[in-house]
Amino acid sequence: MRRNITLIIAILAYIHPVFSQPQVNSTAAARPVAVEIGKGIAYRSPGEGFALTLRLRMQDLVALSFDRDFTLTEIEARIKRLQVKFDGHIGSPRLTYSIQIGFTGHAANARSNADIIGDAIVRYRPTPAWSIGLGQAKIQANRAQIASSGVLEFVDRSIVNGEFHAGRDFGLFIRYDMPRDEGFTFTAKTSITLGEGRNWGKSPNGGLVYTRRVELYPLGRFKEKGETTEGDLAHEERVKIAVAGAYSYNRKAMRTHGQDGALLPDGATRNLGNWYADILLKYRGFSFCADFMGRTCPAPVFDDEARTWIYTGWGLNVQSGYVIRKKWEIALRNSTLFPRAEVQARAGYRRDNRTSLGVSRYIAGHALKVQADISYRHRSRAATGNYTRWGFAFQLEAEI
């Protein structure tokens, strides 16, 4: 941890003399350094030989949980995320890099100090349509996970995404964008990754993850990369739709969720198949999206004292929101999990449903906002009634 912090301080110390240079030219184009809320601190060297954008991001969370009788059972108050991001290019705009470091347990998913590294990837673009990356990044499988946690309509992602998402991993990432903005266009993404999650290091069994995703845009691409954000802050003047599907096969997975989760007992491995389908629509402040995803696995239940098991089944998340004057948004979400019969005894329910109502106040878009959620959760045929029924969450998001 100390070495990583020291590295960041060293980078900032190197850049600092540039910040202090007097700006003799008043035009924005002539300035080597630009600072803009939500877009970071950007430095561009003469001749486009080097570029660096530094972003700092923070999420503060306060959440309350209540039982069936509306008795307060838990209070959560913490810094949910504290991140530093570095993006830019080296030598040529075709060779880019992206680094993200998280300093809280939630963002780091702390298994070791190395897990503070979220993204660390270098990409090469031989043409504007193709991108080839090597390093650690999000697996491009489901829409909800691809979208950053800082551009959500709600305080957090759905329980469906929480159960079936594809996490970060190290490997080779290839992307093709049909070079067309208007009319029908598409994006295809492929990756081959190690399979055990962020900065794992070594996989002794030779298993890998093979993921493919295709995104179709029948009416053209969204404004301001709206396909990767929730809510229609860009206020699309024409209807825009994205339809996508993906499949991720994790061969010889060592953890219950593939890229994360507990280790399987006694060195066991399982083959996991995760599938995803989603649709996104935006028009004049209105947004609608639906995510349908699931997991298959042979022999998901283990006979062990730790009661290790792999969640198989499927889930559906549907949400919609409306942005008022680009300042306020009201959103409604319904998420349901359906475990397969073979794991229902371990899950403790036949169906898990959560309905949420969210309100967001955008001060400077997604870069500076406050959000509040109220949610109700119900499980059918629950093994126990001792679970959170009502929840309230408040969150402040700030990014420079």
Report on this model:
By secondary structure, this protein is mostly beta strands. The protein has a single domain, classed as Beta Barrel (Porin). The chain has five helices and 18 strands. It has helices spanning 2-19, 105-108, 143-146, 159-164, 344-347; strands spanning 33-36, 40-44, 50-66, 72-90, 92-102, 117-127, 130-138, 168-177, 185-193, 209-217, 240-253, 270-283, 286-296, 313-324, 328-339, 351-362, 368-380, 390-399. The chain has a 16-stranded antiparallel barrel. Strand 8 (168-177) and strand 9 (185-193) form a beta hairpin.
Largest beta-sheet characterization: 16 strands, antiparallel, barrel
Query: Helices and strands: which structural class?
Result: mainly beta
Number of helices: 5
Q: What's the gyration radius in Å? A: 22 Å
The sequence of SSEs as H and E is: HEEEEEHEEHHEEEEEEEEHEEE
Please identify, by name, the CATH architecture.
Beta Barrel
Unreliable segments (pLDDT under 50, ≥5 consecutive)? 4-30, 110-114
Strand content: over 45%
